[in-house]
């Protein structure tokens, strides 16, 4: 079975824990070869729960029969998995070579300044998490940043301000 | 129920091909809307919707076929579209442009000149694809279908001779013949190391074992590259076909495609293509009635650069931490689940079908004596035409930069090209005429790599660039072996010291020594090549390092700690904006007194430079 990323979309806000676990259980039981598919299972876990907490790691270990030490080892090895919850919106600045060359560092600084958080951190109100990412394949439009699924191109300090202001406006609509 | 036919032979493929071409023939125009990564980011879907609407409004639905296609290549001009059969190329479109284009071009037959491609170097519009400098000197083999077919249509893939190579291999060729053909083509792995593909397959074929695997490496680790992604998104069937031919050659029944999690679109399109192929019996049992069975499973990465390395990749496919291991045993001896495994890069596999279909001699006609065929590059950075290009191997770098790439923006000077990503190196101006092939690049301390080609102009600091890559590999080092874990960390610290203005000449020597040691002693390719960006910049730009440590200067102003700001009294109009905005109150002056910056207070934020309306602030 192949992972359907869509099916793992996070619905944290709308869903009760019970529903989440139910959804997740059906995913796990879909995999016959659980060990080989651990990473795929974790993708679902991250999608459904938003992060893979130590409790969830234990739960996965129990359900799959994989030692919790291994589950933990895999979760912490890969940058994609997070053990702590992230903000409502994820802001990512591309730090691929093209974006770096064209000034991605300034964008990170500007965002950091504006939001008052460092890379990898979440704002106090839980609204934004700031991350850097590798090439998102839009090098022709470098430097780029994304907020959730929206790509902003040829960003500079000024544009950062505009983008964040627009986000605020959207929030209040 | 679906209307897909079940393919049992090459003749069935011909039927699908004929039917598709006949259907296409019914349309007067075919509009290909680019849905590559860049254009999706630029919201090509809104343009496509506007197009469909305008076509409907004009009542010409039966005359125009609109399709989404893979990356056409001109990524900074998106959204773009090509109108066939005339090959008219429209760029920088907005949904608002569309009604006029539809009316004028598709209804009245007049090209909308003002929306067509603008050649920056020639300073004029060039409306047809075949006349555009950017495309003229490219040879598209791996990208043969990217930007020219509907990526989501298996019928159109077949109509372009897709799966014919697989049918030929399975139906008419022995496994040895397939391997021989690939060997004779001279194809070398496009994933970075450049190992001859035919020889690798032969090792896979000869390996003992009733179960073997073939794996497509779509981890695309180079942080500034998007070739593999574009191929999967724009022509997923070519990878399925390449894997199938490879599997037949080595004797595998199962394949894996390891795709990075960061590429959801590639995962989606590849899965859709797999489903189509299964539905038509092109994957599954008794393919082309040859008795050969084969299927492919997708495995998704989870964000670790080292997983592009083949032994780490296998560990990750097996569901574990993606840590590399010592070789030998090589994957062809002991790979996935302990079974013989052949791993190939996406672009390598995309080249296989044409090689089998058209023959090794045809393929070997491109390229140089020792490096055959073509190479795809992701061209980006300080260059007018950024995007995806495919050129015969051996094309001089100058032709790529100034011909296809259209030169450096703003009339600035070329400084270096970074090729090969974190494992690669920089090519300075003196070597602009170097042919881009495996051996010439290696001689210069760079590598062909997977195809990231980043151009940098005179404003870029090479020490800063080296620091960028070291930061990247240090972050991505899996920590298993000490040279890489500690060596990259130490090299990064030294580079930080140098760019912070605290370096000494001894630091440069130490940096170089560690770089060589890590290269010689690290466990896997990540560590073994991690020093390349440092060694290659030291080789071509040592003076820049020296300037940083002895003169405490960064000529480009990129290293903030080394920049000193000064008010140019002759230009200063004493408006006071700089002083007003300085967050450190480091600037003093008045209408009478000239403005001055107190270096001891200056925090080098650059705000004065930004705010001054008269360009009276100078750096260094
Ligand atoms: C650190 C590291 C990262 C790599 N990343 C990739 C990658 O992203 N994609 C790839 O195809 N090969 C990558 N490789 C090369 C693979 O190990 C392997 O050589 C390649 O996939 C073989 O395919 P090829 O012979 O078709 O090139 C990487 C190697 C190293 C050492
Ligand atoms: S480097 Fe940023 S999109 Fe490629």
Detail the topology: elements first, then pairings:
The complex is a heterodimer of chains A (173) and B (620).
Chain A: H1 17-30, H2 38-49, H3 54-64, H4 68-77, E1 89-94, H5 97-101, H6 104-115, E2 128-133, E3 145-147, E4 150-152, H7 157-172
Parallel strand pairs in A: 1-2
Antiparallel strand pairs in A: 1-3, 3-4
Chain B: H1 10-25, E1 29-34, H2 37-41, H3 44-57, E2 64-69, E3 81-84, E4 88-90, H4 98-107, E5 118-119, E6 124-125, H5 133-136, H6 154-159, H7 164-172, H8 175-185, H9 197-206, E7 213-218, H10 227-234, H11 236-250, E8 254-259, H12 264-279, E9 284-287, E10 292-300, H13 310-317, E11 341-345, H14 346-358, H15 360-364, E12 374-381, E13 387-392, H16 397-404, E14 414-419, E15 425-428, H17 438-443, E16 452-457, H18 462-476, H19 482-499, H20 505-521, H21 525-530, H22 532-551, E17 565-567, H23 577-581, E18 587-588, E19 596-597, H24 607-611, E20 617-619
Parallel strand pairs in B: 1-2, 7-8, 7-11, 8-10, 12-16
Antiparallel strand pairs in B: 1-3, 3-4, 5-6, 9-10, 12-13, 14-15, 14-16, 17-20, 18-19
Helix pairs in contact in B: 3-4, 7-11, 7-14, 8-9, 8-11, 10-11, 10-12, 11-14, 18-19, 18-22, 19-20, 20-22
FE2/S2 (inorganic) cluster is lined by residues 94, 96-99, 135-139, 142, 144 of chain A.
Produce a short descriptive summary.
With 173 residues, chain A is α+β, with helices and mostly antiparallel strands. Helices cover 46% and strands 10% of the residues of chain A.
């Amino acid at each position: 079975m192949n992972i359907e990323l869509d099916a793992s979309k996070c619905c944290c806000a709308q869903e009760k824990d019970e529903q989440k676990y139910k959804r997740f259980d059906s995913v796990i039981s879909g995999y016959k070869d659980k060990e080989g598919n651990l990473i795929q299972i974790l993708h679902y876990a991250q999608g459904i729960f938003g992060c893979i907490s130590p409790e969830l790691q234990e739960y996965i270990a129990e359900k799959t029969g994989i030692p919790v030490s291994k589950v933990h080892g895999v979760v912490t090895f890969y940058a994609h998995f997070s053990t702590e919850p992230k903000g409502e919106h994820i802001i990512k600045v591309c730090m691929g070579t093209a974006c770096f060359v064209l000034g991605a560092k300034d964008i990170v600084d500007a965002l950091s300044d504006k939001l008052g958080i460092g890379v990898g951190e979440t704002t106090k109100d839980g609204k934004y998490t700031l991350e850097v990412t590798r090439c998102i394949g839009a090098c022709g439009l470098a430097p780029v940043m994304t907020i959730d699924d929206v790509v902003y191109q040829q960003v500079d300090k000024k544009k950062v301000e505009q983008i964040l202001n627009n986000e605020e406006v959207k929030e209040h609509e | 129920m679906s209307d897909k036919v079940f393919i049992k032979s090459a003749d069935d493929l011909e039927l699908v091909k004929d039917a598709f071409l006949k259907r296409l023939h019914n349309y007067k125009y075919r509009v290909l809307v680019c849905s590559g990564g860049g254009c999706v980011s630029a919201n090509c879907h809104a343009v496509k919707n506007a197009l469909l609407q305008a076509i409907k409004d004009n009542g010409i639905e039966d005359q125009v076929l609109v399709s989404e296609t893979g990356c056409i290549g001109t990524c900074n001009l998106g959204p773009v579209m090509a109108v066939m059969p005339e090959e008219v190329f429209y760029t920088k479109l907005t949904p608002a442009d569309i009604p006029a284009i539809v009316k004028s071009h598709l209804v009245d037959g007049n090209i909308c000149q003002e929306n067509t491609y603008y050649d920056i170097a020639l300073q004029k519009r060039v409306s047809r694809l075949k006349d555009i400098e950017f495309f003229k000197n490219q040879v598209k083999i791996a990208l043969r279908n990217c930007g020219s077919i509907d990526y989501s249509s298996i019928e159109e893939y077949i109509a372009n001779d897709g799966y014919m190579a697989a049918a030929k291999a399975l139906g008419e060729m022995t496994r040895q013949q397939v391997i021989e053909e690939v060997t004779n083509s001279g194809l070398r792995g496009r994933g970075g190391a450049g190992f001859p593909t035919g020889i690798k397959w032969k090792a896979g074929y000869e390996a003992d074992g009733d179960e073997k695997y073939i794996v497509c490496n779509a981890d695309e680790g180079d942080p500034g590259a998007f070739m593999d992604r574009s191929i999967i998104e724009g022509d997923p069937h070519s990878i399925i076909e390449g894997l199938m031919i490879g599997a037949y050659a080595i004797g595998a029944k199962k394949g894996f495609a390891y795709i990075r999690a960061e590429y959801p679109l590639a995962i989606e399109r590849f899965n859709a293509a797999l489903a189509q192929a299964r539905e038509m019996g092109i994957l599954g049992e008794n393919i082309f009635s040859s008795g050969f069975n084969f299927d492919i499973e997708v495995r998704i990465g989870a964000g670790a650069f080292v997983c592009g390395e083949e032994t780490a990749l296998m560990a990750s496919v097996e569901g574990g931490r993606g840590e590399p291991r010592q070789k030998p045993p090589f994957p062809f001896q002991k790979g996935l689940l302990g079974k013989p495994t052949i791993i190939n890069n996406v672009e390598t596999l995309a080249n296989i079908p044409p090689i089998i279909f058209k023959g090794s001699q045809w393929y070997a006609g491109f390229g140089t004596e020792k490096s055959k065929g073509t190479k795809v590059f992701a061209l980006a950075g300080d260059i007018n035409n950024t995007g995806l290009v495919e050129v015969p191997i051996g094309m001089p770098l100058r032709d790529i930069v100034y011909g296809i790439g259209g030169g450096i923006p703003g009339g600035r000077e070329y400084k270096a090209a970074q090729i090969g990503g974190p494992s690669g190196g920089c090519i300075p101006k003196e070597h602009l005429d170097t042919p881009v092939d495996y051996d010439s690049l290696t001689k210069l301390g760079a590598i062909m790599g997977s195809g990231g080609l980043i151009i940098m102009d005179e404003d870029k600091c090479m020490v800063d660039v080296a620091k960028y890559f070291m930061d990247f590999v240090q972050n991505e080092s899996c920590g298993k072996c000490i040279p890489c874990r500690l060596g990259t960390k130490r090299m990064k610290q030294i580079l930080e010291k140098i760019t912070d203005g605290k370096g000494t000449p001894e630091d440069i020597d130490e940096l170089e020594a560690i770089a060589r040691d890590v290269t010689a002693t690290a466990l896997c390719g990540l560590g073994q090549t991690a020093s390349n960006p440092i060694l290659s910049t030291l080789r071509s730009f040592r003076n820049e390092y020296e300037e940083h440590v002895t003169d405490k200067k960064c000529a480009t102003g990129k290293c903030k700690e080394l920049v000193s700001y000064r008010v140019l009294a002759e230009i200063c109009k004493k408006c006071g904006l700089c002083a007003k905005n300085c967050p450190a109150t480091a600037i003093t002056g008045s209408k009478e007194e000239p403005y001055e910056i107190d270096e001891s207070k200056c925090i080098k934020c650059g705000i004065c430079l930004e705010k001054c309306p008269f360009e009276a602030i100078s750096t260094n």
